[in-house]
Amino acid sequence: MNRRRALAGVGVLALVTGGYLWYARSDSDPPSAPAPTEDAGQEERVAREAVRDRPNDAHARARLARALRRLGRGREAEPELMQAIRLGLPEGEAQREYVLLLAPQNWPDKFEGLFQRVARDNPNDRELLRAIADSYATKGMWDRVEPLCTQLLALDPGHQEWRFQRGVARMRTAYHAKAADDFRAVLTHDPKNYQARLFLAHSLLGDARMAEAERELRVCTKDRPNDVEPLIGLATCEFERNNLSAAQELLTRAAERAGNSPLVLQEQATLYLRQQRTELALATLKRLVELHPDHRQGHLQLAQVYLAAGNEAEARRHEQIYQELDRKEEARLAAQRGMR
Asked: Where do the TPR repeats lie (predicted)?
């Protein structure tokens, strides 16, 4: 039984105060670990001197653990934090450091309550709130990201990176109007932020504000003429106008840049279906799933097209593939979010 499973039945409080830690083992530290800086290196040197002078001082050990964590050396930080806990580090400090150590990892589900409690107990701790928000974002838990970013913005309203991340969280949870407000605010400070403008356009499309979305998408096409996403967005606007010839021209341009893109192929198939060109739609969808066998929507659309064409056997086959892929995706998301 590996260490993670061995700890699975132990309470969170016992894990922290009893000196047991879970930490994802790998050949290297997390790729998102911060690059060492001169200040961080100095922090480590000072902390090591304190440990040499006071080896049984819990706070000295915790300081070294913190320095190592900030250097991205979590595997070295873990035993120092364990020792600090054994030496009597106060529970609140231990839990904070523990969460910060776990945050970059794919932590087990039983720590979710600890993450929420530590965030609630430290409402003004920017380092902690940001680490938890980033961790939730990595897990796709966007509904948890948004309130944390709002807390961070209350502490520093001018921090545009936090505003951008809140916009992403709102966009991912379909709060399109609020997401658009965040991306507009980011663009006010940095009009050249391409990703903010593209996400603003996506949010406006989601809010059915086609004219506004089109303006932003045209700016995106000027900034990055080889990017297919703005072209797909503009094609969506033309779909809404029922201007299928304009949509086809945009999708042709997108296909010239990325003909095997699943996004391009799916939109082309949608266009052909709107034009009642069933054979072309069928060929495009078959190509889509050949190139991207795990494309759920491609299999679903194929099932629908085959059913409409009277080919029940193929319709059933692709529907079953879609259902199996959907089941796997739900299981993946559940595991990623710690909802086993």
From this structure: 262-295
